[in-house]
Amino acid sequence: MTVLVTGASGFVGGAVVRGLRARGVPVRAMVRDAATAPADAEIAVADLADAGALAAAVAGTSAVVHAAARLGEFGRPAEFFATNVAGTDRLMQEAAAAGVKRFVFVGSPSALTAPDGSDQLGIDESQPYPSRFLNSYCETKAVAEQLVLAADSPEFTTCSLRPRAVWGPGDRSGPVVQLLAKLRAGRLPDLSGGKDVRASLCYIDHLVQSVALALDAETIGGRAYFVADAEPIAVWPTLTAVARRFELPPPSVTVPAPILGGALAAIETVWRIPAVAQRWTPPLSRYAVALVTRSATYDISRAERELGYRPTVSFDDGLDRFYTWVTETGGLDRLLAGR
């Protein structure tokens, strides 16, 4: 059973490739540039916009794990739709035509994030999609997920895994690394307002486990699954603990809500200019602020019950492993310099 993994040059896709290979699963790694491909893997060079290349990539495979996506908080909506929606649909069509039996989509709980939403505590997969979305990434992950789940059939089993804030060794640009960069630069004020903000995260090993299980599990067709660590974290105390572990100053300066709102509006206005958005990362965004000011925790019982999913790495153990990896690869300065 050869499995095609898209986005194999990225943190998540690369970890899935290594994890499946370690389990003895034959893997074909799909990348846009062969120079970025994982070592010791069969390679397929293809772009989600190229139907012919996708047809060649899926040929002879029995399953697809679709981890490739356009990420980011800014950019033209058309670019997000072209990759995350049209690209996903094109890949599914080519996979189904080639006789692929299973399609595992790496989705995101961001698909449920509205512009002015409230806390989401312990929600399960019955939570509806919002009528409006926080940004184009959230919207296109929702639309793509709906296309994937609707494509399920007896001949073509589809499902969606929803990990949030995937982190751990190998992460060079994810939410945890972005927060570390802001802490080091002194650009992460305390935005809690005294609120106890809780969040589910997903350690990379847990996501890889869920992918391996989804490739074999029965009765999962057309279903979405939240995938997360066993216990949510308290966001602001955890940020303080992470800062201390990396010998960085913790968040201290507080920003009143009216000032924060005005600053975000100004930033978003400037970053709508393509030349700015393409060259610089904004200091803050509504999406980034939502991650640390809105509670978002997920009920993982469906994944436990139907996939056999069992998260085993605690946050403290995961942080130890991540810190060791950062140290062994040259330290925090080197990690952040490569972003």
From TrEMBL:
All residue ranges annotated as the NAD-dependent epimerase/dehydratase domain in the record: 3-225
InterPro entries associated with the record: Epimerase_deHydtase (IPR001509), NAD(P)-bd_dom_sf (IPR036291), NAD(P)-dependent_oxidoreduct (IPR051783)
Matches recorded under SUPFAM superfamilies: NAD(P)-binding Rossmann-fold domains
Pfam assignment, any one: Epimerase
Domain of life: Bacteria
Protein name: NAD-dependent epimerase/dehydratase family protein
Species of provenance: Nocardia rhizosphaerae
Taxon lineage: Bacteria, Bacillati, Actinomycetota, Actinomycetes, Mycobacteriales
